[in-house]
Write a structure and sequence with these properties.
47% helix, alpha/beta, 4-stranded mixed beta sheet
Length: 276
């Protein structure tokens, strides 16, 4: 390992790259990777930001972005590109810790020391409190994940925080609800992601959507028209999911409810400091 790995919050603010560098690097990575036959899609808060640029002022009013704005760039890709992606980021000046690669490399790669402090690439699926599959979904949009998966990424968090709720608000006000991926939160994609077969996933997502509605109702930043748009779209999602046929496994698990843990604990990746 030739470069010292510093977590984003360990970097002094005066050395920290501005938001424009993160955005430029993320978009450049997607474009350059495509030129090499590699699929990369931007995830997380940056994905929502890029998919909702017309609401940049709302992001600022919600004070979502904070001092550092972005801490890393999260990408989704397919496992078949692992070796190519390793070479791709090395050519871009990034390094990696062999111990992290050995421990997590099948599911995710962690790179550092390039234009931005840290880059993570998740392969085939995002496994957090619930699992979001990327199968056949990365081709549906570019340069980010489709809006439905961007929403699910936030709504699958059991202990959701204010930052994630604000991300969801921006995504929901910027995108209508329907049955296509084109600038739309795709209801069919939400159902097919597992919400009609996995009660726990359904419960977390629908509970968090209600939390977003509660936050919206108490907001002094959003105007009444914005609140009506967001709440109306959430209601459409909830109604659609409620009306979809559920699997037998979903129904059996629903009968148990929250008396049994319905989500997975998130494995926080270990930072192997020098000398350990």
């Amino acid at each position: 390992m030739s470069k010292k790995f510093r977590l984003p919050w360990e970097i002094p603010i005066e050395e920290y790259p501005p938001p424009s560098v993160f955005i430029e690097e993320a978009l450049s990575c997607v474009s350059d990777a495509e030129g090499e036959g590699i699929i990369l899609r931007i995830m997380g808060g940056m994905g929502i930001y890029l998919h909702s640029l017309e609401y940049k002022q709302l992001w600022e009013k919600l004070a979502r972005l904070g001092e550092r704005v972005f801490t890393d760039i999260d990408f989704a890709s397919y496992g078949k590109f692992r070796e190519k992606i390793l070479k791709f980021f090395k050519r871009r000046g990034y390094d990696f810790d062999p111990r992290l690669m050995h421990h997590y490399g099948l599911k995710r790669h962690i790179y550092f020391g390039g234009r931005v402090p840290m880059v993570e690439v998740f392969f085939d699926k995002l496994e957090m409190n619930h699992t979001i599959s990327f199968s056949k979904r990365l081709e549906a949009d570019s340069p980010t994940l489709p809006p439905s998966e961007l929403l699910l990424q936030k709504m699958q968090i059991v202990k959701i925080n204010e930052k994630d709720i604000k991300d969801a608000i921006v995504l929901l006000i910027a995108h209508d609800v329907g049955e296509t991926d084109k600038e739309t939160i795709n209801l069919k994609a939400l159902a097919h992601a597992g919400l009609t077969s996995d009660w726990g996933f359904y419960y977390t997502v629908t509970t968090n959507l209600q939390r977003v509605k509660e936050f919206v109702g108490n907001s002094t930043i959003l105007n009444e028209d914005q609140k009506a748009i967001i709440n109306g779209r959430i209601d459409k999602i909830l109604k659609y999911l409620d009306e979809q046929p559920k699997s037998l496994g979903w129904k059996l698990r629903a009968s148990i409810g929250t008396k049994k843990k319905w989500y997975n604990d998130v494995e926080e990746w270990t930072y192997f400091r020098e000398g350990t």
